[in-house]
Amino acid sequence: MGISVGLVGLGSFGSAFAELFNAHPLVDRVALCDRVPERVAEFARRESFRKKLRPADTFATLDELLKTDIDAVVIITQHWLHAKQAVQALQAGKHVYSAVPLMCVPDGDEILEWCDKLIGAVQRTGLRYMYGETTCYRPQTMFCRRKAREGAFGHFVYAEGEYFHDVDHGLRQVRDNRMGTVAGREYAAELAARYGSRAAAGPMHYPTHSTAGPIWVTNAHMTKVCAWGQPARVHLDFYGKADFANETGFFLMSNGATCRIAEWREIGFPGREIFRLYGTHGTFEHDTWYDKKAGTKLSVEEMREPLPDDVLTSFAAVSGESKLYGGHGGSHAWLAHEFVDAVAHDRTPAVSAWDAVRFTAAGVMAHKSALKGGELLDVPDWGDAPG
To answer: Tens of pLDDT along 47-91?
Structure first.
């Protein structure tokens, strides 16, 4: 018997996942939810949705959807809503998949409070929560996780994670699209009321593409950080004069390794989302595995783990053979499968709430350190996921 899934948020990013969740062989019913009626109508008209979508299962608000008997919700809404909506859904008895970031607001303490609320909600309800961090299912990460389990790295010595994304490379368009929605206009008013002209956060408040690789592969977490920021000098129309456009943090990890994380939004370089790992016996850089003798360049097929055959066939039918893994390094298909499979088999998803808060808190504390001129700060931790 399959599960039922409500898709919440059908904008540009949510649309990239909708067909995958609908096509999964363990999903036998879907619901659609978006504040823009035409987005819901567009998917409801598709032939691929007619088998699993009931006429009554279309909604304009999350509140309406949560009153139904749907098993799980996939939240791909605006980033300032994710944690609040995830906790609301858990409290309503639904399993939750949430897009990243956990929450991105100017107040780092507020983000940490929601980290605590999320862990508490998962613990109280016993429901399944998965964090949709794309880095975790890039081929490089899959390969490094395998090598780490084998012990091939030896003792981890050092790690680097970085997300280079200059404002001119699409961030203005993303911001304009977000703030041009009904939810965006409401949020703009809230920001103005709460923060006035200081309504921006440093890039470390959205750190998960850079922190996830080192943390998830090593199965360790950040314990201390000192960080520095560079005020905006080029994109003053995007950032305030006192805001950091680039932030770099240096971390001590729970396994004794050190780690550098870079979140840069003013850089004359094509976008890059990558990590590197160095151990006493093995090292991984870009697409190459090194031991003490030589390096071995790897193909995507060698690094990526295969999806189950029935899932692969179902996804290929809606995406085509060449695009079945989706974007962000082919992570989309794996993210959708992992959540559905975890809910259907009543297990903790591989990327859990405990991973989500570790990825997030590291960045929050890095930003706090940068605001204090590089002061060494402790990074809070909520422990390991059950099991």
So the answer is: 999 999 999 999 999 999 999 999 999 999 999 999 999 999 999
User: Over the stretch 277-325, which tens digit does the pLDDT of each residue have?
Assistant: 999 999 999 999 999 999 999 999 999 999 999 999 999 999 988 888 9
The residue to which tokens 């998965």 are assigned: 130
8 Å CB contact between 100 and 360: no
Angle (CA) 91 92 94, round 5°: 95
Please report, for the chain, the start and end positions of each structural domain, with discontinuous segments joined by +: 3-132, 135-304+353-378
For residue 297, give the H/E element and its range.
Answer: strand 295-297
Closest among 347, 344, 348 to 26, alpha carbons compared:
344
Name which CATH class applies to 3-132: alpha beta
**Is CATH 3.30.360.10 the right assignment for the domain spanning 135-304+353-378?**
yes
Identify the H or E element spanning 275: strand 272-279
Q: Which tokens hold the place of 69?
A: 């008997």
Q: Output the DSSP codes for 59-128.
A: ESSHHHHHTS--SEEEE-S-TTTHHHHHHHHHHTT-EEEEESPS---S-HHHHHHHHHHHHHHHHHH---
Going by C-beta distance under 8 Å and a sequence separation of 6 or more, which residues neighbour residue 363? 204, 205, 206, 207, 208, 211, 249, 261, 263
Beta strand 156-164 with 272-279 is: antiparallel
Non-local CB neighbours of 83 within 8 Å, separated by 6+ positions: 98, 102, 103, 111, 114, 115, 117, 118
At residue 286, the 3 state secondary structure works out as coil
